[in-house]
Amino acid sequence: MYKGKKVIVVLPAYNAALTLEKTYREIPFDLVDDVILCDDASRDNTAEVARSIGIRHVLIHEQNKGYGGNQKSLYNKALELGGDIVIMLHPDYQYTPKLIPAMVNIIGEELYPVVLGSRILGKGALRGGMPLYKYISNRVLTLLQNWLVNYKLSEYHTGYRAFSKEVLLGINYRQNSDDFVFDNEMLSQIIYAGFSIAEVTCPTKYFPEASSINLRRSITYGLGVLRVSLGHRLQLWKLANSPLYAPPGH
Question: I need a labelling partner for 6 at 20 to 30 A (CA). Which of 80, 143, 204, 239 fits?
């Protein structure tokens, strides 16, 4: 715990058997109370590895529900277990668990209710192996998003995120897509709801075992990001009434 706040790490897993244990062993358990893994119908033995290394809460999707669908199950379970600070960490070891103390401290001290691990702050993204086309598309999309949603972040596309309980209870994340654009819908909801966001510099790691979407899925994702951001702008202008921004339960 951190000052009486229960800290939970959630792991959205798909074919993560080769990297899961390495990720798990670096989680700082002097701060983290619980770990939840959701296996989204992996084709490998991710769930078996999770249980063998001591993860108590292993959720299994018998059919693949997608990256967003995986997160919905994880956040629902984290809230059910009484999590006050919830950190999403990918189990493919692309993001270092060693940043968890910094993220917990920022939320636990009530400085910010949301923390993102940014790969773009600093100059480490390309050195860490981020493909050039992904770096360029990240920068271009982020520039457009900052303008459309009237905010300023170094990137909207990191999968390393921490939230206070109040954020998860205050946005309608269950309404979001089950696909990769879930992440951007969630940030749009957070910004629209008025929650402040902090960013910490996160080292970038790209290697064969790390998960990554192909070019076709990347294009689909990029178009989805633009759709979300345009929808956000229309919502700000009162020209739309999207259910994404409705209070939870509506």
Answer: 204
Instruction: Indicate the residue type of 207.
Output: F
Q: Which amino acid is at 106?
A: I
Structural contact between residues 145 and 229, judged by C-beta atoms closer than 8 angstroms: yes
Strands (E) located in 92-160: 114-118
Domains of the chain by start residue, with CATH: 7-245 (3.90.550.10)
Tens digit of pLDDT at every position of the chain (250 positions): 899 999 999 999 999 999 999 999 999 999 999 999 999 999 999 999 999 999 999 999 999 999 999 999 999 999 999 999 999 999 999 999 999 999 999 999 999 999 999 988 877 777 777 778 788 888 999 999 999 999 999 999 999 999 999 999 999 999 999 999 999 999 999 999 999 999 999 987 765 655 566 677 788 888 999 999 999 999 999 999 999 999 887 6
> Is 161:115 a contact under the CB 8 Å cutoff?
yes
What is the number of residues in the chain? 250
Q: Decide: pTM greater than 0.70.
A: yes
Residue indicated by tokens 């490998």: 44
